[in-house]
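Input structure tokens:
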């Protein structure tokens, strides 16, 4: 679709609330919130395509929202310092209403990766807003304190699953976010913390076969392990551990000529292919000089847009667990479409390939 680039920008702008938060999906029953993870990637995409005002409003919204929860963070850190076990409600949520409030329905809220992601994204935005650091610094400092206290805590992964485990991709996001903050203001982050996180992953997050684990104790791979190299730089893209991780993702999760699954045991909406994960693989291929493969992925992503140019969260052509598909549809309706994160990753990959043509 030749106009998909412009349509994607229009869908993202239409999905941004006046206060700055991006709705995950404007039509899906469960996604009427703004996630820090999704939102940061959407904002990053808007910076990539020159829509800096939109990205700026999102980062402002995050800073305002998190600063409003400072008393909750202070109370949580005091409880930890006393050796007490926090309750689930003590943690910051993974998603907020578009006005910065808490959701009214139950959710798998204790997730740390979004907080690392927003730190990373906010620093990427600074070249377009050089005086912005002083405005967001209190929220950045609060987030750093929060992550420094909790980074080894089991928490839900980026797919809102497996609460009782420590996830490699989450640690990669924390590493990337904290390193990004250090690059701007080194004294804001405990000096050894990023390296401690990296060393922890290398010591405990690598399977016997030499690839990264989905989570500690689970030697399977998840497509989110692509993030260990791009963008968070926990390891170099040419690192042997990442090379083995990529090879296993390609074997287990990539449909040649199609998309990318989250992980092999996925049953959410039957376990379909995710365009946004295909885009991440395309970014990896681009970095590795595998341009034709990256272009093929871009074309597949474009082909998943419907007649209105709307891109879905996942595609049901080759389901991993088709017996679970109807149950999810009955529960929540059809899979999210449009998903703003899908549009964002399409824009990022397209821009990357155009810049390196």
């Amino acid at each position: 679709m030749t106009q998909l680039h412009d349509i994607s920008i229009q869908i993202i702008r239409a999905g941004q609330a006046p206060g700055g938060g991006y709705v995950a999906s404007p039509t899906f029953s469960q996604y009427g919130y703004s996630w820090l993870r999704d939102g940061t990637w959407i904002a990053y995409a808007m910076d990539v395509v020159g829509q800096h005002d939109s990205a700026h409003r999102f980062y402002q919204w995050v800073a305002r929202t998190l600063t409003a929860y400072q008393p909750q963070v202070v109370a949580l850190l005091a409880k930890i310092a006393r050796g007490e076990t926090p309750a689930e409600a003590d943690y910051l949520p993974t998603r907020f209403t578009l006005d910065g409030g808490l959701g009214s329905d139950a959710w798998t809220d204790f997730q740390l990766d979004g907080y690392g992601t927003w730190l990373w994204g906010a620093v990427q935005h600074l070249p377009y807003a050089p005086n912005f650091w002083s405005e967001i610094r209190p929220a950045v400092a609060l987030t750093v304190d929060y992550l420094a206290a909790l980074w080894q805590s089991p928490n839900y992964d980026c797919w809102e699953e497996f609460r009782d485990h420590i996830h490699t991709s989450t640690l990669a996001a924390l590493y990337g976010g904290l390193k990004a903050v250090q690059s701007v203001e080194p004294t804001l982050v405990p000096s050894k913390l990023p390296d401690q996180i990296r060393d922890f992953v290398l010591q405990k997050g690598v399977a016997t076969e030499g690839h990264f684990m989905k989570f500690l104790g689970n030697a399977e791979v998840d497509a989110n392990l692509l993030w260990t190299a791009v963008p968070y730089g926990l390891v170099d893209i040419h690192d042997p551990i990442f090379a083995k991780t990529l090879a296993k993702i390609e074997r287990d999760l990539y449909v040649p000529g199609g998309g990318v699954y989250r992980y092999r045991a996925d049953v959410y909406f039957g376990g379909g292919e995710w365009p946004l994960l295909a885009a991440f693989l395309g970014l990896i291929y681009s970095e590795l000089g595998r341009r034709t493969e990256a272009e093929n992925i871009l074309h597949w992503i474009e082909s998943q847009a419907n007649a209105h140019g709307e891109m879905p969260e996942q595609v049901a052509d080759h389901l991993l667990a088709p017996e679970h598909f109807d149950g999810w549809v009955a529960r929540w309706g059809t899979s999210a479409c449009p998903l703003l994160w899908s549009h964002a990753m399409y824009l990022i990959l397209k821009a990357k390939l155009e810049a390196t043509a």
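The chain has a mean pLDDT of 96. The two ends are 20 Å apart (CA to CA).
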